[in-house]
Specification:
single chain; 291 residues; alpha/beta; three-stranded antiparallel sheet; 7 helices; 12 strands; globular
C-alpha cells in the first residue's frame, strides 16, 4: 500500500493536516509517533483565543486554528494536548547525537493556555488517567543517526529547511504592514509602546514616500547558500538513517518554508524534487496536492 504524502507551504498548516489524516483514516485519533525533522523543534506554546478542552475537533475547526491562531513554531504542542501524538521525536541536528529521552507534559489552564514542562512523578503521576486532568503526558526524544526502533504509527514531518539552514531568513526582504501616520508617530515617539517592549525588538517604524509602515526584520549574518552537494549529502545521510532503522511512516508531510524565508529561494523547487525522488526510491508514495 502506498504512503500518502502531503506538501504544505508553512508549518502551522501541519496541525490542520494531522487532523485531516485522522479523518482519512491514515492514523488513529491518539497515540501516534511524530518524527519531526526540522532545523527548529517548533515546541513553543502560549495562550490562545481557543477552547482546547473540546472533546473532538473537525478538520474544518483545525484549519481555523491553524490559520487563525497558530504560528510556525507552536503547532506541535496543541496536537500533543489533543492526544494525536504520545511521542514527539525531534531530529534537528546534522551530526550523530545520542538519543535524549524524558517524560513531559502539556498543561491546559483555563481552557486556553498551554504550557509544557518536564514530568515530575511525585507531582504529576496522580493525574494520569483522570478524566478531569489538565495534563497530557507524552514522551519527548531528541537525537539522530543512532539506532532507534519505533513500533507506533509514525507521522513523518519534514521541513525542507533542515537540509539548508545555513541560509536561514537571508532570502526574503523585511516584512512590513502599512499603518496610518498617527499610528506611526505614536510608535516612534512612545518608548513604552506595546510593540517596542516585546521580548525581542524586531519591529521598527519606517516612512517611505509619504506612507508609513511597521517593519519586522531579523538581522541575520549574510552567508552564502549551502552548496548543492552539501544539501544532497545531508539528505542522503538522513534517508540512510531511515533505511537503517526501518522507519515506515503511515503518512508523510513536507513543509516548504519558502514564504517565511527559512528555505532559501534559490534552492526551491529542486530541493523538494530531489527529496521526493529519493523517497520514491525507498518506498511507495502517493503525492497529494496541497488543499
Amino acid at each position: 500500500m502506498s504512503i500518502p504524502l502531503y506538501r504544505m507551504e508553512e508549518h502551522n498548516e501541519a496541525y490542520y493536516y494531522w487532523n485531516l489524516f485522522i479523518e482519512k483514516g491514515y492514523i488513529g485519533k491518539s497515540g501516534n509517533y511524530l518524527l519531526h525533522v526540522d532545523h527548529h523543534d517548533d515546541m513553543e506554546s502560549g495562550g490562545y483565543e481557543w477552547d482546547f478542552t473540546r472533546p473532538d475537533i473537525s478538520p474544518d475547526e483545525a484549519r481555523k486554528l491553524a490559520y487563525g491562531r497558530l504560528g510556525i513554531a507552536d503547532f506541535i504542542v496543541p496536537a500533543v494536548y489533543q492526544g494525536i501524538f504520545s511521542d514527539v521525536h525531534i531530529v534537528k541536528n546534522l551530526v550523530r547525537r545520542p538519543m535524549v529521552q524524558e517524560e513531559q507534559f502539556i498543561k491546559c489552564t483555563g481552557g486556553c493556555e498551554l504550557t509544557r514542562g518536564k514530568m515530575i512523578p511525585f507531582l504529576h503521576a496522580s493525574w494520569r488517567g483522570k478524566a478531569d486532568s489538565p495534563y497530557r503526558f507524552f514522551t519527548w526524544r531528541e537525537g539522530c543517526f543512532e539506532p532507534v526502533a519505533i513500533e507506533k504509527d509514525i507521522v513523518l514531518d519534514i521541513d525542507l529547511d533542515y537540509f539548508c539552514w545555513d541560509d536561514s531568513l537571508k532570502s526574503v526582504p523585511p516584512k512590513r504592514v502599512e499603518i496610518t501616520a498617527q499610528a506611526y508617530e505614536e510608535f516612534v515617539r512612545n518608548p513604552y509602546h506595546p510593540f517596542r517592549i516585546l521580548p525581542k525588538r524586531l519591529l521598527r517604524g519606517e516612512e517611505d514616500a509619504g506612507r508609513y509602515y511597521l517593519v519586522y526584520e531579523e538581522h541575520i549574518p549574510k552567508k552564502e547558500p549551502p552548496a548543492r552537494e552539501r544539501i544532497l549529502k545531508r539528505m542522503d545521510k538522513l534517508l540512510s538513517w531511515f533505511a537503517e532503522c526501518r522507519i515506515e511512516p503511515k503518512v508523510i508531510d513536507i513543509c516548504r518554508s519558502r514564504y517565511s524565508g527559512y528555505l532559501p529561494a534559490g534552492v526551491y523547487p529542486w530541493l523538494e524534487e530531489e527529496l521526493l525522488r529519493r523517497l520514491r526510491s525507498m518506498m511507495e508514495i502517493e503525492i497529494y496536492t496541497r488543499l
